[in-house]
Design goal:
The complex is a heterotrimer of chains A (90), B (450) and C (448). Chain A has helices at 3-12, 19-36, 70-76; strands spanning 59-60, 79-80, 83-88. By secondary structure, chain A is α+β, with helices and mostly antiparallel strands. Chain A has a two-stranded antiparallel ribbon. In chain A, helix 1 (3-12) packs across helix 2 (19-36). Chain B has 15 helices and 13 strands. In chain B, helix 8 packs across helix 10 and helix 8 (268-283) packs across helix 11 (336-357). The two termini of chain B are 17 Å apart. Helix content of chain C is 44%, strand content 20%. Chain C has helices spanning 48-60, 155-173, 179-182, 204-223, 268-273, 280-291, 295-304, 306-319, 321-334, 336-343, 347-360, 365-375, 380-383, 391-400, 403-411, 416-427, 433-447; strands at 2-10, 46-47, 64-65, 68-70, 72-75, 85-88, 95-102, 105-116, 120-124, 131-135, 142-148, 184-190, 196-202, 232-236, 241-244, 257-258, 264-266. A 9-stranded mixed β-sheet of chain C has the order 3-7-8-11-1-12-13-14-15. A 3-stranded antiparallel β-sheet of chain C has the order 6-5-16, with no helix packed on it. In chain C, strands 4-17 form a two-stranded antiparallel ribbon. Chain C starts with a strand and ends with a helix. The chains are: A alpha+beta (90), B alpha/beta (450), C alpha+beta (448). The B-C interface holds B 52-53, 59, 61, 66, 69, 71-73, 75, 170-175, 178-179, 205-209, 278-279, 281-282, 285-286, 288, 290-292, 299, 303-304, 307, 327, 330-332, 335, 339, 343 and C 34, 37-43, 45-46, 73, 75, 77-79, 82-85, 131-132, 249, 253, 255-263. Strand 1 (59-60) of chain A pairs parallel with strand 2 of chain C, so a sheet runs across the interface.
Chain lengths: 90, 450, 448
């Protein structure tokens, strides 16, 4: 895990890192990923599931149930005329 | 004597006990302070780990980035305990978003061990374990992803039950890893857990993963256990000895103990950290200063800079480390070797346990490789070393199996727990064994406990 | 030239894909809840109807259906995306490797899957410094994404493909009334070797326009000996041009993982058991094959109305293709709107007897056309005949004023036809043509 990779991963995950931090994390992750290499030996099959217990075919009927207080949710955010204010786009 | 207080403690006594415990051990991120609130009629008092949403307190999950966030709804588990007559007295301190085994990664307060304030409570449900330990008759709701109920239960000398994945609805739980998070209970002894586990269990339409469970069956016994040899390496000398004493006691109780091997266990911890951090790195993407918590007022920056700035100042070091690790493990070119492989390894671990359960009722190991470390010892541990401390709690958590940590020894006055893992849905037999254990083994309460 | 499309169509469910909020909200940020706002602690629940619609589309497009599917998290950061990840289907689309036929050509369909829509951004403030204002009513609305192979060969063909696709989807699942403008597409187009992507174009007209502009732009570059760089562009509605995408400066790594909160879905049996309704263009193809209709005729009939096609088939079975075609495309189509308004649901039983009468000779073509016009409410003049005379005296009068017909009738009985026509004109369909011709023959025979 070199510093270049750490910078790229930080960018993808929207984290600003100082040079010191890049250094520290690179060393940590190098360490950790070396330990993870043990998985290459694991005698696994191709199969996998997303959950440790079978969660299958859980569906919800197409019925409308309006949330009772959307205003409460809007008050949690910064709004202008009901629109949620976000950052600059460019 | 207040009408609502549990037998043996007046309202004012309870309030004083809570305040005292909190001031000395920094248990609560936020708590009930108003005496009138304590007068409300209740059958028992409980606390909720601060990653559980409740509308009467902030939910910060140990993070600066959720500073000021008051959820508009209650987590289902909390609502159900209120319905069962519980009074919520506070939100307990934790590692940020669940990232840690010592509750030291907290922006809202680092809880101190009830037996020795210079030591960690364990994590990430450190505050919950401390509350259970310090307050008489208290029920603490905790959350485990890789061992965050078992570890603090062991370090704080309390019983900690982690139910099967999907047993308790996760609606209202601020996510760490969606396929690994389980809401569970901690208490000074097993009775409160036994009584209130049914209240928080059961299907919830708001959480599809909670809808596949069979009904909770509290009968069930443990007559035989397997101790895998892999669990006995890497322990401190005193932990090894204490554990063997506990095993001998179990045998005297009539439990058959078989020694065996579970070779696949050595892969579990890596697979756990890959899946947990991969899922966490996506769960934390939403914290970007726009819709709740730390809302950024300055909009003069382009959105990428805006998001990065908020996240970098609001997220702690361990959170960043896990986001980087988890993001990496699912990126193009690495995803197959790490993320997909980890999913496949989970199946391997599940099958390894199923193999054991053909011949025994539970798998028994120590909960942690050592007793609660001092804060200065933790400072000098590397990230990898802290992760490796989870090698005993990681496997049942990865496999989604129910497990319990029961205090089984005191090493130089510090508690140590043993961990039993049962097949899916068999919480009942774990609690039965705990009850039997408590008939013969006397728990030592910390000094200064209410 | 090769063009491929990634088409997004909103599924017409009542509630959103992962929560029970209505898909139609009026006031900004009114149809929202903790789930479609991505509040901490919230989690998704899949809409059954959306899944069924998605599967029916995959089946309709002749895809191989995946037995078991699940959902994925596609992580990227943008103000309209409440969780900063979109729940979509990466590893397991509902179906893949299908096709859709236009103009006799098969256009490959690479995949069909469902996913959630992000919110809607409005730009506010000075150009170059615009901030995002977001309406999350749209956040969580279900979309079907249909990805084609780069088999389309022109912007016009791309538009025709989308037009036809929407015609079929309207019948298959129903769509919103303004679906032609709410459909969105990312388009890939290569005039030469290199592919350029134009992202997020709204509506069929803009999609064609954007592709036309881009095709021209690439051709000009190639003609000037320049290279086309592989890039992502956006379409500027106002100017009608494509421009380099200004905002997403670096390649995102979406880092797909499964969505554990939803689990898995077994859709194989559902797909196999599904009986899809016949769609308009499929019906047109069948009409061509079964009745020898020309493609344009078949298309005209089915696109006018489903009931018109029903009537055509009923007529064709009774009277043969040619008769059915003539009448359907002629008099009946011409008055279809009025006929449907007045007799919708009973048109077959109202009109078929009129054609039966023509075939048996009971009435003439002209009379049949007149009757249809009357049905359509256009024959109000027919209600008042110009002559109020009874048939007998009228026929007498006409025979009197046409002695040459009487003379010709002696050697040629068909001379009577001229008079039949006259009487019909004057009586405006008041009498059956059989009745009129009998009356005329009787009168003529009297004089002969």
């Amino acid at each position: 895990m070199d510093e270049g990779t750490v910078r790229r991963v930080a960018k993808v995950s929207r984290l600003d890192l100082t040079d010191d931090e890049v250094s520290i994390y690179a060393a940590d992750l190098e360490d950790i990923l070396s330990a993870f290499a043990v998985l290459d030996e694991a005698p696994t099959g191709e199969d996998f599931d997303l959950d440790p217990v079978p969660v299958e075919d859980r569906l919800r009927d197409d019925e409308v149930m309006a949330y009772p207080d959307p205003g409460r949710l809007r008050r949690e955010m910064r709004t202008a005329d009901g629109w949620v204010r976000g950052p600059r786009l460019a | 004597m207040g009408e609502g207080a549990p037998p043996g403690m007046s309202v004012m006594d309870l309030l004083a006990a809570v305040r005292d415990a909190d001031e000395r051990h920094r248990i609560f991120a936020e708590r009930l302070e108003d005496p009138l609130a304590y007068e409300v009629e209740h059958a028992f008092h409980f606390s909720a780990k601060d990653n559980l949403c409740t509308s009467d307190f902030q939910a910060r999950a140990g993070s600066r980035i959720l500073e000021g966030y008051r959820p508009p709804f209650d987590a289902t588990a909390v609502a159900r305990l209120r319905q069962a007559g519980g009074l919520l007295i506070g939100k307990t301190n934790m590692d940020e978003f669940g990232f840690g085994s010592f509750s030291t990664n907290s922006a809202t307060g680092v809880p101190r061990n009830p037996y020795d304030a210079a030591r960690s409570c364990g994590g990430s449900s450190g505050g919950a374990a401390a509350a259970a330990s310090m307050l008489e008759g208290h029920l603490a709701v905790g959350v485990s992803t890789g061992g965050s109920i078992s570890c603090p239960a062991s370090f704080c000398g309390v019983v900690g039950l982690t139910p099967t994945y999907g047993r308790v609805s996760r609606w209202g739980l601020i996510d760490y890893g969606n396929s690994l998070d389980k809401i569970g209970l901690l208490s000074a002894s097993s009775g409160m857990i036994r009584r209130y586990l049914p209240a928080i269990s059961g299907p919830d339409p708001l959480d599809p993963t909670s809808q596949v469970q069979p009904p909770l069956d509290m009968s069930g016994q443990i007559r035989s256990v397997a101790v895998p040899e892999e669990a006995l390496t890497g322990l401190s000398g005193s932990m090894r000895a204490a554990f063997e004493d506990a095993v001998a006691r179990l045998e005297r109780m009539g439990v058959e103990v078989r020694r065996g091997a579970m070779p696949a266990l050595r892969f579990a911890l890596s697979a756990y950290y890959i899946l947990a951090t991969a899922e966490a790195s996506t769960n934390l993407a939403r914290y970007c200063g726009m819709r709740y918590g730390d809302i950024e007022q300055e909009t003069d920056q382009s959105f990428n800079e805006f998001f990065s700035r908020v996240r970098s100042r609001g997220l702690g070091r361990e959170a960043k480390r896990r986001i980087l690790l988890g993001t990496f493990c699912r990126m193009v070119g690495f995803r197959d070797r790490y993320y997909i492989k980890a999913l496949q390894v989970r199946e391997l671990i599940i099958r390894e346990y199923e193999e054991q359960f053909r011949s025994v009722d539970a798998v028994l190991t120590p909960t942690m490789p050592f007793v609660a470390p001092r804060f200065d010892e933790i400072e000098s541990m590397s990230a990898l070393e802290t992760y490796q401390a989870d090698f005993l709690t990681g496997p049942p958590n990865l496999a989604g199996l129910p497990h319990i940590s029961i205090p089984c020894a005191y090493i130089d006055g510090l508690p140590a727990g043993m961990q039993l893992v049962a097949p899916r849905w068999e919480e009942g037999r774990l609690l039965s064994l705990a009850e039997r254990w408590e008939n013969g083994f006397e728990y030592r309460r910390p000094e200064g406990r209410a | 030239m090769r063009i491929g499309l990634e088409v997004h169509v909103q599924l017409p469910t009542r509630s959103k894909l992962f929560c029970s909020c209505s898909t139609s909200g009026d006031e900004v940020n009114s149809s929202v809840c903790p789930i479609c706002l991505g509040f901490p602690g919230s989690r998704p629940r899949l809409n059954r109807k959306a899944l069924e619609m998605g599967v029916s589309i995959a089946k309709f497009l002749n895809c191989d259906i995946n037995e078991k599917v699940w959902f994925s998290r596609k992580t990227y950061f943008y103000p309209d995306l409440v969780k900063n990840f979109q729940i979509t289907q990466y590893e397991t689309p509902l179906g893949k490797d299908g096709f859709f036929t236009i103009g006799g050509r098969r256009i490959g369909i690479w995949r069909v899957h469902i996913e959630e829509d992000p919110g809607r951004i409005k730009r506010a403030g000075r150009s170059g410094e615009e901030v995002a204002l977001v309406d999350y009513n749209r956040s969580g609305v279900p979309l079907v994404e249909i990805v084609t192979a780069p088999d389309l060969t022109s912007p016009e063909e791309a538009r025709a493909f989308l037009t036809d696709l929407l015609i079929e989807l309207r019948r298959l699942i129903g769509l919103s009334p303004n679906d032609e403008t709410t459909v969105r597409a990312d388009a890939n187009i290569s005039v030469g070797e290199e592919r350029v992507e134009i992202k997020n174009i709204n509506g069929l007209k803009s999609i064609e326009k954007g592709l036309k502009f881009e095709a021209k732009r690439q051709s000009k570059l190639l003609a000037a000996g320049k290279k086309i760089s592989r890039e992502t562009r956006r379409f500027d509605e106002e100017r009608g041009t494509t421009l380099p995408s200004r905002e997403k400066e670096f390649e995102e790594d979406y880092g797909y993982i499964g969505e554990p909160d939803l689990g898995t879905f077994t859709i194989g049996p559902m797909a196999r058991a599904m009986k899809l309704p016949e769609t308009p263009l499929a019906r047109a193809a069948r009409l061509e094959a079964e009745y020898g209709l020309a493609p344009t005729s078949a298309r005209q009939i089915v696109l006018t109305s489903w009931e018109l096609a029903d009537m055509f088939e009923a007529l064709a079975r009774r009277a043969g293709s040619e008769t059915a075609t003539t009448w359907t495309l002629g008099a009946i189509s011409a008055q279809w709107v009025e006929l449907q308004e007045r007799y919708g649901g009973r048109l077959e039983e109202t009109i078929v007897p009129i054609i039966d009468d023509v075939r048996s000779g009971a009435i003439t073509d002209a009379e049949a056309r007149m009757r249809i016009a009357v049905l359509a409410g256009k024959g109000s003049e027919a209600a008042e005949p110009s002559s109020s005379e009874d048939l007998g005296p009228l026929v007498s009068r006409l025979v009197d004023s046409n002695p040459d017909v009487v003379r010709d009738f002696r050697s040629n009985p068909r001379a009577a036809n001229f008079l039949i026509g006259q009487v019909m004109k004057e009586t405006h369909g008041r009498y059956a043509s059989k009745e009129i011709s009998e009356a005329i023959r009787k009168e003529l025979e009297k004089r002969v």
